[in-house]
## 1
Amino acid sequence: MPAALASLKTGLGFDVHAFAEGRKLILGGVDIPHDRGLLGHSDADVLAHAISDALLGAVRGGDIGKLFPDTDPVYKDADSLKLLAAVAEFVRSCGFEILDVDSVIAAQAPKLSPYRDAMRENLARAMGVAVESVGVKATTTEWLGFEGREEGISARAVCLVCRCSGQER
Ligand SMILES: Nc1ccn([C@@H]2O[C@H](COP(=O)(O)O)[C@@H](O)[C@H]2O)c(=O)n1
Ligand SMILES: C[C@@]1(CO)OP(=O)(O)OP(=O)(O)OC[C@H]1O
């Protein structure tokens, strides 16, 4: 196998947060108007968390809770884009470059497509990659499951990273 191919790693991330009254709905760093927000120790940005876990998975770096424990008051109401930026730095410190990220949010409501590009721009900036390297999609679950009952939102993400130091790209 060519060395460049041998240095590619994939990552998968998944996260869920429940809706709660009196919380902001922050997705991909965008404050989205809605009657409820997501509950969490941090700002509960389920999309930023799924992408963080995908990146950590790719470099076998554990998961978001290992890096930023939800028992640590430092992360109370934390801006998850800042956590994602720290994860991206950790990925680079392991010798990997972030090549590509794709994601999907499962939410019955609200309609998320108007915020897609703002989310992509925020996430790309946080990770230090081009906006073209970041995909964000949304789907309902056709009223099925906890997302369909509007009890919460889930997000899934995949990424591709490359150990590029000293190798041809
Ligand atoms: N919260 C959501 C969910 C979906 N979308 C957009 O609607 C399209 C159709 O969704 P289905 O679940 O009915 O397949 C989807 O492809 C998204 O473009 C959305 O914006 N916000
Ligand atoms: C992000 C962290 C930060 O303490 O808290 P939560 O907002 O509860 O989010 P979760 O997805 O449960 O991940 C754990 C934590 O790392």
## 2
Amino acid sequence: MRISVIGCGYLGAVHASAMAELGHEVVGVDVDERKIAALSAAHPPFFEPGLPEILASATASGRLRFTTDISEADDAEVHFIAVGTPQQAGGGAADLTYVDLAFESLLPHVADGALVVGKSTVPVGTAERLAARLAETAPHAALAWNPEFLREGFAVKDTLEPDRLVYGVDRPESAAVLDRVYRAAIEAGTPRIVTDFATAELVKTAANAFLATKISFINAMADIADATGADVTALADAIGHDARIGRRFLNAGVGFGGGCLPKDIRAFTARAEELGRGKSVAFLKEIDAINLRQRQKVVDLAVEALGGSVFQKRIAVLGVTFKPESDDVRDSPALDVAVHLKGLGADVIATDPEGIENARERHPQLEYTTSTEAALADADLVVLVTEWREYRGLDPVDTARRVANPVVIDGRNVLDRDSWRAAGWTVRGIGRP
Ligand SMILES: NC(=O)C1=CN([C@@H]2O[C@H](COP(=O)(O)OP(=O)(O)OC[C@H]3O[C@@H](n4cnc5c(N)ncnc54)[C@H](O)[C@@H]3O)[C@@H](O)[C@H]2O)C=CC1
Ligand SMILES: O=C(O)[C@H]1O[C@H](OP(=O)(O)OP(=O)(O)OC[C@H]2O[C@@H](n3ccc(=O)[nH]c3=O)[C@H](O)[C@@H]2O)[C@H](O)[C@@H](O)[C@@H]1O
């Protein structure tokens, strides 16, 4: 099929490449010339495992090209909209400017019989509004909402082998078109839910709200564990054995960040308030507050570990991205902690395998190094805030020799406390003695 993907960021670049990998003819469109130049040269403009390989093979096959010229989307049968929906400046609601602009710029290029498919995460009601606009200007085309559930770090696999497909449609023909797009996944038995626009939009928001709630729940338990000497990791293991609860997303620590969970729960709250249903999701404000307190907790632990002040103390911050296997620093708890410690007068040196460039762009005031050894050298305190494999795998004996003072705050509860303590370290975790 001929497909266009409007917006080639973390979601769109992977989607476009994956669709071409599946055999479709794909054009990726973005307004960012640098991004398009990089993608056209088969260089991913961000770090995502597996993307370089499929981008290279799809580009070489001739089935994938990138452009800043939206008129090249003209002959596509399916147009995916994958532009950003960030948090509005000065409020919690989603900023739909990019969706609206992309949609308007696409309208003159929508052929009769084409399907416009929203992938961006939007407030419920958006699809209905855009469908009405489409009916005015391209009455022989249709709209669908097909939310995306990929995780950064696993984006390629999640796109090629999704755990479910959700189609929000207003006519059966649209579902049939999407079935052709996702034929491979459907033949592999992927569950598919065909529903209306509002439900499809809400499925996405609800899924992210649930995941955020799960993380804040365990972080709330970690706080009680801290007050009582209990161990939140053992608690999570024990409740996680109950299949109704499940162990995944019960890792206590510095909390959730990224370009999605934080802004999505705020946008959901704002939309529910607009609908007069603010009370129903008021708990999400508490989920957000618990999450942000985790960042402060790690900073407080650092101050405490250094005897009440971090002023002019050398602190090695391990990790700046919001999670491992990504270079994304959007709303990153790790970077927030580093910035906060710097603000308290600490001599912070932050390191990360992939995120330094993005971090430096946002916070040039911090000192960065890509070398873990250089970060650790003569540190008065080590703060692990993104659980990259290389930090989890640090040898406590060797690491103790590099630092000035063997004290570590394990902001992700990933270090083996016994072996670190046996090597002379003072170890502080989150919700663990
Ligand atoms: N990043 C992720 O893991 C996931 C993101 N999403 C949702 O997907 C959407 C996109 O997110 P990301 O890819 O992370 O954002 P991003 O910021 O990485 O990418 C958005 C892209 O859209 C481009 N763009 C903006 N206006 C445009 C226009 N008028 N025409 C063409 N391109 C335009 C930007 O230049 C940028 O490259 C958001 O709604 C997000 O919530 C959903 C699931 C996963
Ligand atoms: O809408 C989106 O963009 C995506 O948001 C999340 O994906 P992602 O942001 O890539 O990352 P997650 O793996 O969900 O992690 C989010 C944050 O939660 C934190 N987290 C995760 C799990 C956990 O147990 N504890 C915890 O603190 C991570 O460190 C990270 O900061 C969802 O998992 C995806 O399904 C969704 O498509």
